Amino acid sequence: MASFKFRGNGKVQITITHGTKFDGTPKRFYREVPYTTDRQLQIDAALFLADVVNGVASISCSSTIDTLFESFIKEHTVDVGLKGATSGRYEQLYNNQIAKYFSSRQINKITRSNVREWVKHISNHGHAKTGGPLKPKTVKNALSLLSSMFNYAIFDLEIIDKNPCEKIRIPKSDVPAKSDKDFYSEQELISLFLLLLEKRKDPRSITHATVIFLILFTGMRTGEVMGLRWEDVNFEENKLYIYEERIYVANVGILTDSPKTPHSIREISFPAFLGDMLKDLKAHQQHYQELLGEEYQNTGFVAVIDAGTPQHPRNTYKWFKRFLKANNLKDTTVHDLRHTHVAILSRLGIKIIDASKRLGHANTRITQETYEYLFNDIDDDISNELDTYYKKIMEPANL
């Protein structure tokens, strides 16, 4: 379907509606042509429609941000090899933060002032669910995505000359930064460990409780634990090989891919007590495999339901929230347990460079910016220290 909008400069904007976007809304393509006659305009519209259908329609400087984003994602997925998980994150970020403000705005009419106002708005009111302030990191990611889209329009499409996102400062957020007091104290950790150990005795909770222990004592991301397979667990050397993640992206679904950066593909050691927990979990799964016989689906993942298929990546998060509330424990998130792991490492005197490698950060700068206040310069073996730490704080419980 084609529609026309007559400009005051002797040109007509042709709009073609064809197909749907990732969120179910119609796809619209735009092209400006000189106006001569109505007949020629219909011919131009027919040629434009053919380009759209054949996937060769190009965008112009007067196209909208929606059109630019679709072209950006398509180009980077097909030609640059953008990972499915990253593409999903981009789409979610675009939907939640960029589209609401810029969706139908023309590329060539967005100014630095517009971008500055947008950054200020999402910093204070950008939270998708609450309408409250966003964390500076999320604002930074949204601005980075928008800037990448404009750079694509400049250097790849050559339809504009300037990037309005340059030299935009992110305002200070009202969202408080994490500090040492936000993490569980040793006494709170003892209570958490004891309750988790009790939950591990329940066949319905053994998987979730073990996942929580894995994150607490390895610093793995939740998606990395969900992507972990038994073949990646070396019980003889107490090592894990991390090269895959399973994550859930809203409006996209569950994605299985390599971790977010090449540095996230890594080998890390785990403390001995965690190896015992993993062996218990594997025995639990083998019991159900024998019980269900051919009905059991042996997918090889560490985190599975009783039938053998992988856990939904969000299941442990929901279980953990219910667990905390039921036991009147300090509210936190599964991802914050990764931060708690870093806090434990800092208490043990582990160097920040070693913690960075363990976390799978691309460089130590990321770790330093987030956790530098936690660390000092004492060097020790991480896994042995974690094992000693666990036994030390659990000693009062006579376990």
Automatic annotation (TrEMBL):
Keywords: DNA integration, DNA recombination, DNA-binding. This is Site-specific integrase. GO terms for molecular function: DNA binding. Residues 63-154 form the Core-binding (CB) domain. One of its GO terms (biological process) is DNA recombination. The lineage of its organism: Bacteria, Bacillati, Bacillota, Clostridia, Peptostreptococcales. Residues 179-384 form the Tyr recombinase domain. Gene3D superfamilies: 1.10.150.130, Intergrase catalytic core. Belongs to the 'phage' integrase family. Site-specific tyrosine recombinase, which acts by catalyzing the cutting and rejoining of the recombining DNA molecules. CDD domains: INT_ICEBs1_C_like (cd01189). InterPro entries: CB (IPR044068), DNA_brk_join_enz (IPR011010), Integrase-like_cat_sf (IPR013762), Integrase_catalytic (IPR002104), Integrase_recombinase_N (IPR010998), Integrase_SAM-like_N (IPR004107), Tyrosine_recombinase_XerCD (IPR050090).
